[in-house]
Amino acid sequence: MNQETIKHSELTFQAMVESTPNAILLVNKEGKVVYLNNQSEKLFGYTRFELIGRLVEELIPKRFRTNHPKYREGFFDSPSVRAMGSGRDLFALRKDGSTFPVEIGLNPVVTADGTLVLASIIDISERKKAEERFRLVVESAPNAMILVNQNGIITLANNQTEKLFRYDRSELVGNKLEILLPERFRQNHPQHRNYFFANPSARAMGAGRDLYALRKDGTEVQVEIGLNPIDTVDGLMVIASVIDITERKTQEKIVLRQKELEVKNKELEQFAYLASHDLQEPLRTVSNYIQVIEEDFGEELNAEVRNSLNTIKSATNRMSILVRALLDFSRLGRGKTLSYADCNKVVSDVVSDLESLIKSSGTKLTIGKLPRLNSYETELRQLFQNMISNAIKFKKEGIPPEIRIESEKLGEQWKFSIQDNGIGIDPMFHERIFQIFQRLHPEGMYEGYGIGLANCKKIVELHGGRIWLDSEKDTGSTFHFTLSDLPI
Amino acid sequence: MNRSINCIMLIDDNSNDNFIHDRVIKKNGFANIVVALTSAIDALNYLKQQKEKDLVHPDLIFLDINMPGMNGWEFLTEYDKLDTDLQGKIVIIMLTTSDNPDDLEKARNLKALSDFKTKPLTKDMLSEITVKYFPF
């Protein structure tokens, strides 16, 4: 190579170096800067005259300086193209004393002045900032978010991940993702992951399969997982967003059960309706033909036959009423409408409906202040009507009924009490009286079909409450029931 | 005795009910003729063939709901399709065991239907119907 050629190639090299967007430094074996390009001047804040001949360590923050000469010597002992620092975060120092993160590539360059190292320096402040922003976004996400590389290693996990899986993130980062999977899913998972990286796109994981994750304590949690491919400097990764859906699944089950129950209730109601409808027909035929006999042969019948006919007639009447009561019971609360009802008004309406009964029996009513609450007013009216008329009906012979109605707030509910001075109820019957068609007294003693209290119980339950009583035989009864203030 | 009702038609698959209803109508003289049919299809055919067979045109029909084959509701749908001269001025009253509120609601919305009564048909019911729908 003649001087001309050498000169020319040096110029070409210089022009190339000047035009690269990276900062480039040439450093000799002694660690002295022998050349720097325009980008380096800008990046470090020195002019090339200030820097040439100075030790490269002056561009390194003090805390990293000590070991650098040793690394430098190592490089010259076995010069090769490599990235500097391998995995360590590298920082550079400006003339003004500020530091910034860098990435540095090293290249041995053989020149007439011996082997030099060409350092190509990239300011990665922006990238670091972006990474930090990404980390903050992930951290503040409401879901557990886990960043996983193509080898299935967790590289990032947020606070929610710690909460959901009960691991400290230091136990997760650097580990295989499979530790978060129940044993039975582990084997196939790398295959799924490879498939994802081969066809990266945002998608829900599992597509229809129920997904479960494993906590540190060995418990499992049902999850829903969204996958998103993310291009990072360390290659393509997948960010998994994990939601605990245990609660939702429980809710879904409850809703399903409720729907089943609704269907069953509907069926039952339909059954009761059809049964009572079909039962009414033969009953009607029986009573119709009794009437025919009475009309056509009345005068020819003797007293005994007429008596028998009357018995048949009253039995069919009674059955007809029972069948109808069964139907009413099954339909109770159907088409109910919720409204804000004033119980004072409801009770005073019931009292005026029962006015003649109250007067004839000499009943004394004491009614305390009652609440207003969201309720099914029609049914509520029926409830008070039953309670009050029962209290009058089951009075002690010769003693005018005294009835006291009170209410009190009991937690979220209202508790009502209806106290009477009637015949009382033996505690052994306290459960039974709320069952349909259960009566405690022989026919004829007290009118009734054993349906009123069954209706009351159903109405109270419609209002999310319960009904019970305090009573002994001969000491009067106090019926209690609770009603919820239902949400409208 | 009210003579403005000449003919009453009973449509009910239950012949016992028809017997009793026929009896109460005739016994109390509410109509001259009672046509008792046990199927809604028969009733529809009757109405269609009134002229050719010279059948008596009913003034009042008592119609049951629950019947095998064509039920009361289906009968009313078909009835609506008849020529107006075949329909005449018939008063149709649903007469059924049903006091199902759904049926009541449905009955209220049907123009062809004048009323909804619960079985059995009684003398009082007939008097009331006569006063209301056949005042002359």
Provide an overview of this structure.
The complex is a heterodimer of chains A (488) and B (136). Helices cover 43% and strands 24% of the residues of chain A. Chain A has helices at residues 3-19, 38-44, 48-51, 62-65, 68-77, 125-140, 159-165, 169-172, 183-186, 189-198, 246-297, 303-331, 343-353, 355-361, 377-393, 452-462, and strands at residues 23-27, 33-36, 82-83, 90-93, 99-111, 114-123, 144-148, 154-157, 203-204, 211-214, 220-232, 235-244, 338-342, 364-367, 372-376, 402-410, 413-419, 467-471, 477-484. In chain A, strands 1, 2, 3, 4, 5 and 6 form a six-stranded antiparallel β-sheet that branches. The termini of chain A are far apart. The mean pLDDT of chain A is 88. In chain B, strands 2-1-3-4-5 form a five-stranded parallel β-sheet, sandwiched between helices. The longest helix of chain B is centred in the first third of the chain and has 13 residues, at 15-27. The radius of gyration of chain B is 14 Å and the shape is globular. The chains are: A alpha+beta (488), B alpha/beta (136). The interface between A and B is medium-sized, with 13 and 13 residues.
The backbone outline of chain A, from C-alpha atoms, is rod-shaped
Largest interface: A-B, 13 and 13 residues
If you consult CATH, what is the topology of the largest domain in chain A?
Heat Shock Protein 90
User: What is the helix content of chain B?
Assistant: 25-40%
The poorly predicted ranges of chain A are: none
Order of helices and strands of chain B: EHEHEHHEHEH
How many strand segments of chain A?
19
Biggest sheet overview of chain A: 6 strands, antiparallel
The oligomeric state of the chains shown is heterodimer
Number of helices of chain A: 16
CATH class of chain B: Alpha Beta
- The tally of domains of chain B stands at 1
Secondary structure elements and pairings:
The complex is a heterodimer of chains A (488) and B (136).
Chain A: H1 3-19, E1 23-27, E2 33-36, H2 38-44, H3 48-51, H4 62-65, H5 68-77, E3 82-83, E4 90-93, E5 99-111, E6 114-123, H6 125-140, E7 144-148, E8 154-157, H7 159-165, H8 169-172, H9 183-186, H10 189-198, E9 203-204, E10 211-214, E11 220-232, E12 235-244, H11 246-297, H12 303-331, E13 338-342, H13 343-353, H14 355-361, E14 364-367, E15 372-376, H15 377-393, E16 402-410, E17 413-419, H16 452-462, E18 467-471, E19 477-484
Parallel strand pairs in A: 14-16
Antiparallel strand pairs in A: 1-2, 1-6, 3-5, 4-5, 5-6, 7-8, 7-12, 9-11, 10-11, 11-12, 13-15, 16-17, 17-19, 18-19
Helix pairs in contact in A: 11-12, 13-15, 15-16
Chain B: E1 7-11, H1 15-27, E2 33-37, H2 40-48, E3 60-63, H3 72-80, H4 84-87, E4 91-96, H5 101-108, E5 113-118, H6 123-133
Parallel strand pairs in B: 1-2, 1-3, 3-4, 4-5
